[in-house]
Amino acid sequence: SFPTRRSSDLVASAIWIEPDYAAFMQRLRTFVVEGLRLMATPGSPLANDPATLARFADLMTAIMLPMSGLVIVAMLALSAGLGAIVAERSGRMAFPKPSFNAFRLPGGSLILFGAALLISLWGGYLSVFAEIVALGMALFLMLQGMAVLHTRLQGNASRGFLLAAAWASVLVFGFPALLFVGAGIADHLLDLRSRK
């Protein structure tokens, strides 16, 4: 799948830099600590409290690889969508642009998502690979949940406002994305759009 390919690329790059996972994470943490020290303003907790700096560095080190993988997947998906719009409007698209309302992950996606979540608990480079796959799948499940909303609001007079509010809530606050991930999972299992 798309997230799996991007995950393997990122993990392979990390292994090429440092085959030993613990040594790689230590190198990454050293880089993060130095970066935080450079960015910390005088008088801030990061500058004055070594314990706060250490906790924040641990957090940043833990999420840096998975989040960078998620950003790559999101940017490639956005680029593909924008490219399709440009190609359609310029008359260079060889086939009709698929409707976002019909966006649906293929069968077996939830199995991949669940397996990735389980493997992410193991540790090592394999867990990093699984974390990126799980985050990528969560992103696409969120888009499937959004597609459900787009479909269910067809014919609603306030459709534009409600869709704008939904997208804005995800982009600004982040946590509403979990609701749409849940909607995507429910649609995958129950085909919510057929019940409209």
Report on this structure.
With 196 residues, this protein is an all-alpha fold. The protein contains eight helices and no strands. The chain has helices at residues 2-17, 21-39, 45-48, 50-89, 109-119, 124-152, 159-173, 176-190. The radius of gyration is 20 Å and the shape is globular. The protein starts with a helix and ends in a 6-residue tail after the last helix. The model has no long low-confidence stretch (mean pLDDT 89).
Quickly describe the structure.
This protein has 196 residues and is an all-alpha fold. It has helices at 2-17, 21-39, 45-48, 50-89, 109-119, 124-152, 159-173, 176-190. The longest helix is centred in the middle third of the chain and has 40 residues, at 50-89.
Which series of helices and strands comes N to C?
HHHHHHHH
The largest sheet, given as strand count, sense and whether it forms a barrel, is: none
Percent helix:
over 70%
Structural class, from secondary structure content?
A: mainly alpha
Low-confidence stretches: none
How many helix segments? 8
Report, as a whole number of angstroms, the end-to-end distance. 29 Å
- Radius of gyration, whole Å: 20 Å
Average pLDDT: 89
Number of separate strands: 0
Amount of beta strand: under 5%
